[in-house]
Write a structure and sequence with these properties.
It is a single chain. By secondary structure, this protein is an alpha+beta fold. The protein has three domains: 132 residues, D-Maltodextrin-Binding Protein, domain 2, CATH 3.40.190.10; 158 residues, Dipeptide-binding Protein, Domain 1 (Dipeptide-binding Protein, domain 1), CATH 3.90.76; 221 residues, Dipeptide-binding Protein, domain 3, CATH 3.10.105.10. It has 16 helices and 21 strands. Helix 1 runs parallel beside helix 6 and helix 15 runs antiparallel to helix 16.
Length: 539
Amino acid sequence: MLYVAAGILLQSLSGCGSDSKHSSNTIYLNYSSGTLESIDPAFAKNLYNMWTDHMVYNTLVEADESLQLTPSLAKSWEVSTDGLQYTFHLRTDVFFQDNEAFANGKGRKMTAADVEYSFNRLIDSTTASTGAWIFNDRVDKAQPFKAIDDSTFIIRLNAPFRPLPQIMSMPYCSVVPREAVTKWGKDFRAHPCGTGPFKFHYWDEGNVLVLHKNPNYWQHDAEGKNLPYADAVQISFIDSKATEFMMLLQGRIDFVNGLDGSFKDLVLSKNGELKKDFSNRINLRKQTYLNTEYIGFLTDSTKDVVKDNPQLNPLVRRAVAYAIDKQKIATYFRNGAVLPATSGFIPQGIPGHDSSGRFGFNYNPAKAQQLLAQAGYPNGKGLKPLHVLAPENWADIVNFVATQVKEVGIPLEVEIIQPNILRQQMSRSEAPMFRAQWIADYPDAETFLAFFNGRFPAPPNYTRFSNATFDKWYGECMNLPDSQRHIRYMQMDSLVMSYAPVIPLIYDRLMHFTSKRITGFKANPMNIIDLKTVKINKL
């Protein structure tokens, strides 16, 4: 397979640019899912939906490349002392894109009433939005949202939740006009209308999606020039990551997110840099990605699948953690493009991550054997085999882990399973031990700590971890100022690691490959791409 991939890539390199016949000011993308489910932000449940929604719509706030919240439709906001009311002050110069749902087809001004409508629609059971969880059981049931006037909007909560502004940056919270939703009904998914930098033009589902520049877009650059710079975005739907990368090399698209596994050794050096054959053809942009890859343990002793299982003992779980060389995983299985996860579940790049090394698990086989002896299994004697479930794309890493833990006396059986079946078993507490990942939904470390809240179901609490102190701290910190809350987050992460319901393996990093013809491409650490400032260069 490696030699076949090498031949294909070299052929692509030799012909690079030969069939690049593009409009001079259009950005070309490909969605390797082969499809796009919807352009309705109420269903922004996967990455490609979120990317498209971010082009067409706006939210009240946005998270930039450094995870700083920046104003968008909201100019400013404040929270009441009791943490139960958030007030957002909106821009008054924002218009919806032209759409036949409006009088004379001309987009009208956006107001606070549109925000109220959009959020109520999100939690309306008839909408059946996959994003209803954002507000359900969190906002006041009597009157959660209120437009005070055209430019003032209020959210009322039933309990303090300081990361609320961060949640407002999620594409689910995009603002839509009632007229367009009413006119198109369920077909609003294919007739979107928002306030974003690009407006809908044409969609042949499964083949091509075309968005045009919104000429009435409200944002400008530092020099006062209208955004976006590009005239259009054209998206294809070739359902192969390998083919997608070759399209980039051939100049047919401008951007690829990540790399097909069969190409990593051909394209990247062991320190995660582009090899020379590729660096003069494309650019590689690396940055923080709020994604922790981990091995989890079901810790609920009432479940039959872990009855009398030695993994219920935290000493055994910690022994497994110390037996794994995460640096080798990062270097040899990911070509140095990721970071070893040695400092807790909260990844690098977000406030609440503790990089001091005070907790977490480094590679220490002697410590692993010491913990096994404390647990009553000296050198693994008498230890029943553990059983881990993993998807096919992680088989090599999980088998490597199994080899390493066996070296300290811990027998580990690996079962490869389809991803959808694995998720089902994790949700039903039927997976005793599992390989998974946790990607931030919004730019606050609470999204990683909710994973361990004993009052929450699975998801997010797939391990069924329950600790009274943790739950108490979680509740208390939801109305703490940011600086104090971030310190508490570290303490909570440290407490979790002492029980080791999960073993963080790697902190992921984004690898964005772009063509030489574009500059100004941006993305934040949740992997939401921003095309407003992309310029097309004449090569």
